[in-house]
Amino acid sequence: MKRLTILLLIICSILLVSGCRKTKENNTTNDSNTTINSPSETIDTYIPTVTQTEDPEIETMLVKNGTTDYKILISENEKEDKYIMIAYHELQYFFNESTGIKLEVVTDSEVNDLGEKSKYLSIGNTLLSNELGLSYTLEELGLDGIKLNTYGNNIIMNGYRTRGAMYAMYEFLERQFNFNNYAADEYVIDHNVVNMNLKEYNVTEVPTFERRSVGLFSYTTDDTFRNRMRQEFYSEGWITWSHSYYKILPMETYYNDHPDWYASDKKQLCLSNKEMEAEFTRVVIEMIKDNPDCNYMSLGQEDTNSFCNCAACQEEARKYKVSGATIRFVNRVAEAAENYLKENEPDREFYFSVFAYQRSQEAPVDENHQALDESVYPRKNVRVLIAPIYACNSHNYYDECNSDIRSLFDDWNVVAKGQIYTWIYNKIFAEYFIPFNNFSTLVQNYEILDSIGTSFVYHQGNKETEAGGMEEVKSYVEAKLMWDRNQNPEELAKDFIYQYYKDAADAYYEYYKLFRITYAIWEKEENIHYYNSGSRSTSFIDTKHFTRDLVDKFNNLFLEMFDSIEKYKTTDYQLYDKLKMRIEKEYLTVRYLYLKFYFDELNYNEAKTMIDDFEKYCSKHQINVWRELAVSTNVDRTINYFVSELRKKLNDK
Q1: Which of 23, 288, 348, 579 has its CA 20 to 30 A from that of 99?
Q2: In 3-state terms, what secondary structure has residue 312?
Q3: How far is CA 411 from CA 377, 398, 424, in A?
Q4: Secondary structure, 3-state, 11-53
Q5: Exposed (0-12), middle (13-18) or buried (19+): which is 184, by Cβ within 10 Å?
Q6: Where residue 636 falls among pLDDT bands split at 50, 70, 90?
Q7: Neighbours of 296 (CB within 10 A)
Q8: Does an H or E element contain 74, and which?
């Protein structure tokens, strides 16, 4: 094991340089004179571009001898706002946990002592915040940017909108009380605070991406965790999300009377049908009326790689490409909606998205990378959602092996500069238990997306189940990088592992590195690249690669993890149970590999125990499926089916 550890450390240091390095920015100018910053030349070490300094303490005491003079201040006008309420409840909770003091909450209409000498923790657009004279504009902060400032004896926490004020509150907790959230059931904060000086803050933070959504299970199911990690639910604020043609014009409602509104294969709409377009537009406007709290709507084609084959649609696609035909259709709908909003809701901002995905992935540009004509530019209220589903994820999007993806981004940057959203991938669609190999490209790819002006990143993963290998560590690392990509992902991962797995962290970190190194060796020796879908995505998932020896090494590391926490079984059973559940969840990957590939090599008792435990811990973690529905039309994707087939084989032993 010692030799293996040394080898792992050597190779992992190589991986750290190649996967986490900060890139020099070269300016690449295409034929449209659009400048794109692309990572191409690299340097040997990771250099953060943001230097964090300690906030100095001031004489004012926040806590003195176990008491405080401070209260939470909110605006009378915002006291029922969702995010302000979350912010003051969270501040009360964590202040109490750290100091034993429950802070009183008051509104600015209830007090008359506001000024430099007052002592308030102010959240949102209070009169005290206004008195400080700071601006909180969309241009400066974007949707979620924050400001955290000391004003005399007061702390001001605010943003462009109340969600930003909530994030500013979490920033205060992080800087004042060393708060850090790792998982839904794991955070750290200073405890037993009896005396504490206030710190002096002059903080402005604007996240790398204006809107951020890690599409993994923990963020799908837990609002509190999502807020603490400065994430949003991927479809929050959207009337329709993703593939939406048939949500707007469902076939069961319209097809019998209007079969010509649909493609002959019934997989898409016929975008050249003007009668369909009129009804589509009417329904869209009605949906906007019925959802006054939403500001986004996807007008996205169905999830099939197809396009209507009628003569009119095919001629439109020949002239403008499928993407151009789609944008022209969406532009007309968006114009009608914009006219409605101008007349009826002039202050409401509203945006539509259109997919650059599968058949519509190729941008509507000519051989000189110029827009085909003015009509293919998205309107100001339209965003292009690029989904590079065919990218190799173990190399960055501008790597030579992803030349088609680079062209994709460059061309869309010509047509939709400043109006780009991205939908990227975080899982193998057909194998949820196998860790997805995008560890080393996160920073580089986020840098690329930032360079083309992406304002919303959805990183789709196993949002329906926890089954994805190493999901928890990725949940943490990706959320942190989406807020600030100028961080070292390896340091983030290591910090997470040692906090989350505690005594088992040494062995888990070895497991984490062994998986990464194994992937790197396969790539170097066999030129294996790692994809999220299609046959290429599972080409390495076989006994040639996941040899019995390799799976046994994984297994031995998990046995070390279990041994490391055994002492808590009698001294701190609650901690023991928590750590055991975390390890057992990750151990499902190893059990899955044994059951999938080496079932015949197990004796009856070994096989029965492994099946029983696999079923038990899948159930405990509410893991019901092992692959996505979309790729499972001919394969039962349920854990129940997988286990039942194994039990049939067990009876033959």
Answers
A1: 579
A2: helix
A3: 12, 13, 17
A4: HHHHHHHHHHCCEEEEEEECCCCCEEEEEEEECCCCCCCCCCC
A5: middle
A6: confident
A7: 21
A8: strand 71-74
Contact 467, 626 (CB under 8 A): yes
**Hey, which bits of 94-215 come out as E strands?**
105-107, 120-123, 146-151, 154-159, 180-183, 186-188, 196-199, 202-205, 211-215
Q: Above 50 in pLDDT, residue 60? A: yes
User: Residue 474 has what DSSP assignment?
Assistant: H
**And the tokens for 444?**
């580089």
At residue 630, the 3 state secondary structure works out as helix
SS3 per residue for 609-628: HHHHHHHHHHHHCCCCECCC
CA atoms within 13 A of residue 463's CA, in its CB half-sphere? 16
User: In this structure, which long-range contacts are made by residues 81-85, counting pairs with CB atoms below 8 Å and at least 24 apart in sequence?
Assistant: 81/124, 81/162, 82/162, 83/161, 83/162, 83/163, 83/165, 83/166, 84/123, 84/124, 84/162, 84/165, 84/166
| Dist. CA 443–CA 438, nearest whole Å | 10
DSSP letter (8 states) at residue 402: G
User: And the tokens for 576?
Assistant: 């023991």
Confidence of residue 271 (pLDDT cuts 50, 70, 90): very high
Q: How many CB atoms lie within 10 A of CB 133?
A: 7
The number of residues making up the chain comes to 653
Helices 573-597 and 548-565 pack at an angle, to 10 degrees, of 170
CB-count burial class (<10 Å; 0-12, 13-18, 19+) for 358: middle
- Confidence label for 31 from pLDDT (cuts 50, 70 and 90): very low
What pTM does this model have? 0.90
Across 325-455, the runs of DSSP E, i.e. the strands, are 351-356, 382-386, 420-425
Residue 550 and residue 4 in contact, taking contact as beta carbons nearer than 8 Å: no
**CA–CA separation, 12 and 20 (whole Å):** 11
Q: Give the strand pairing for 120-123 and 146-151.
A: unpaired
The radius of gyration of the chain from alpha carbons, rounded to an integer in Å, stands at 27
* Segments in 390-470 forming alpha helices (H): 403-416, 442-451
Whole-Å CA distances, 550 to 8, 511, 594: 14, 11, 11
CA 529 and chain centroid, separation: 22
Q: Which residues pair with 25 in a beta bridge?
A: 39
**Beta-strand (E) ranges in 379-538?**
382-386, 420-425, 456-460
Q: What is the mean pLDDT of residues 386-413?
A: 96
Partnered with residue 120 across adjacent β-strands are 71
What spatial distance separates the first Cα and last Cα of the chain, rounded to whole Å?
A: 34
